[in-house]
UniProtKB/TrEMBL annotation:
<dbReference type="Pfam" id="PF02906">
    <property type="entry name" value="Fe_hyd_lg_C"/>
</dbReference>
<dbReference type="InterPro" id="IPR009016">
    <property type="entry name" value="Fe_hydrogenase"/>
</dbReference>
<feature type="domain" description="4Fe-4S ferredoxin-type">
    <location>
        <begin position="85"/>
        <end position="117"/>
    </location>
</feature>
<dbReference type="InterPro" id="IPR050340">
    <property type="entry name" value="Cytosolic_Fe-S_CAF"/>
</dbReference>
<dbReference type="InterPro" id="IPR017896">
    <property type="entry name" value="4Fe4S_Fe-S-bd"/>
</dbReference>
<feature type="domain" description="4Fe-4S ferredoxin-type">
    <location>
        <begin position="118"/>
        <end position="147"/>
    </location>
</feature>
<dbReference type="InterPro" id="IPR004108">
    <property type="entry name" value="Fe_hydrogenase_lsu_C"/>
</dbReference>
<protein>
    <recommendedName>
        <fullName>4Fe-4S ferredoxin-type domain-containing protein</fullName>
    </recommendedName>
</protein>
Length: 463
């Protein structure tokens, strides 16, 4: 190993496990110093011991402070709330001694730069907190702040009804035998009051996107950029293609829709999104979207919590409560949003479906290329879908399965859905009825109540 190169720690999974276990057992505050010393024992040099302490603080959702100890009189207060920005954190000391360029190469937005002394730093104006750099960093110097400590506290307190909104990419992630019903039972055992498929809210967004398409694509040069799922896709357009912003559909993501609808019906409830995405931690905190989602966990973090709580989802009873359609469930893979909106348009407004001409891109380089071509007028498509991860959300950095296997599982899960589109999904009408819509399908555009709930910029919801 060259001099001044940080050691290969590969210690983050163990740190997350120890922190989650102590949080689950209710002993984290007393034991955080002990956990720190337990893990630091393996490393003699002070810099690595500080790195371990910082990683423990990040796992607790706190800022690194370059101390060898995990003790701070304000920690208790910080742990009660949602993690603060920025989500992706670099350990400054480790980065100073690192000469690898793997994190720079992994960042598709060019947010990691080097100063005149060769030290890397994150340009926060470009960083979208996507988390790609974390898996590329072999020294464990980069990490995303975890939110599971305050979440475990919330579940232990039993003071609020807590919903888990689970992304459709969950299929197969916790084992091929772990159905939605088994995952639901495991989450209930963990202390959640209910699990819902985020895909049900993707169904609502599909309807809204179909109506938005009908509303905004009138002539041959009109096109709609779907904004549904991916915060990195939106950030890419904001940063590099601001002239295309006016074409973005005004719909929120299914994650935000799930939180808003649940809280519209139960204002005191807490909603936790669980998915493969690190960037969702940031999306949930955007000023215009804040309040819908209380905590965000990745699948990797949830798997660690299950392990710490000795819960094996595959051994839990299968109490499936089918909710979403095929269209909502395939949002998890590239092309899913376009397929869902296209088939829904055929049901809702058949005359407009004939001209529906979608295109999709996945991975930031391909998304960028597609947007450049759209800007240059080289493409004749009128519904533009982009997903930052290769393969779509099944390729998200917090996944547990390879993207190809995730895609297969998602397709199988979609094919097993009781309804093909949201138009045939009785759960949609039941949700709409609870929201006060008793007669058929509301258009969800303009100034309607549903449009306001599902709108990207929510000023106030008309009653
Ligand atoms: Fe997140 Fe990737 Fe899905 Fe975008 S494509 S929402 S970055 S997991």
């Amino acid at each position: 190993m060259p001099p001044n190169t940080p050691p290969d720690l590969n210690i983050r999974p163990r740190i997350l496990y120890q922190v989650a276990k102590a949080a689950w057992e209710g002993t984290l505050f007393e034991r955080k110093g002990e956990i720190c010393h337990l893990l630091q024992r393996e490393f003699a040099d002070k810099a690595t011991r500080r790195l371990v302490a910082n990683q423990i603080r990040i796992a607790m959702g706190l800022e690194p402070n370059n101390s060898e100890e995990v003790i701070n009189e304000y920690d208790a207060e910080a742990l009660m709330g949602m993690g603060s920005e920025p989500v992706v954190i670099a350990n400054p000391e480790a980065c100073e001694n690192c000469h690898s360029s793997s994190c720079e190469k992994a960042c598709p937005l060019g947010a990691i730069t080097r100063d005149e002394l060769g030290r890397p730093s994150i340009d926060r104006t470009k960083c979208a907190n996507d988390g790609y750099c974390i898996s590329a960093c072999q020294f464990g110097a980069l990490a995303d702040k975890s939110q599971f400590v305050p979440l475990i506290n919330l579940l232990r307190q039993n003071s609020h009804k807590v919903y888990a909104s689970v992304a459709p990419a969950f299929a197969g992630q916790f084992g091929s035998e772990v159905t939605a019903g088994k995952l639901r039972s495991a989450l209930l055992k963990l202390g959640f009051n209910e699990m819902v498929e985020t895909a049900l809210y993707a169904d609502l967004i599909t309807i809204k996107e179909a109506f938005e398409y009908d509303d905004k694509v009138k002539g041959e040069h009109d096109f709609l950029i779907t904004s549904c799922c991916c915060p990195i896709w939106i950030k890419l357009i904001e940063n590099k293609f601001p002239d295309l912003m006016g074409h973005i559909s005004p719909s929120v993501s299914p994650m935000i829709a799930s939180g808003r609808v649940i809280k519209e019906l139960e204002p005191e409830a807490k909603v936790v999104f669980i998915g493969p995405c690190v960037a969702k931690k940031s999306e949930a905190q955007l000023p215009e979207l804040k309040g819908a989602i209380d905590f965000v966990l990745t699948f990797q973090e949830l798997a660690t919590i299950f392990e710490a709580a000795a819960i094996n989802p595959s051994e839990e009873p299968d109490e499936e409560n089918p909710l979403a359609s095929w269209g909502g469930r395939i949002y998890a893979r590239t092309g899913g949003v376009s397929a869902a909106v296209g088939t829904t348009l055929e049901k809702l407004i058949p005359r407009r479906a004939e001209l529906f001409n979608p295109i999709k891109a996945d991975g930031i380089p391909d998304c960028t290329k597609l947007l450049e071509e759209i800007r240059a007028g080289k493409r004749e498509f009128n519904f533009i879908e982009g997903m930052a991860c290769k393969g779509g959300c099944v390729g998200g950095p917090g996944r547990l399965l390879p993207p190809e296997e995730g895609t297969k599982q998602v397709n199988d899960y979609g094919n097993a859905a009781p309804a093909h589109t949201p138009v045939e999904n009785p759960q949609i009408y039941s949700t709409l009825t609870k929201l006060g819509h008793y007669n058929g399908m509301p258009t969800m555009t303009g100034t309607s109540k549903m449009a306001a709930i599902l709108a990207r910029k929510l000023a106030s919801v008309p009653k």
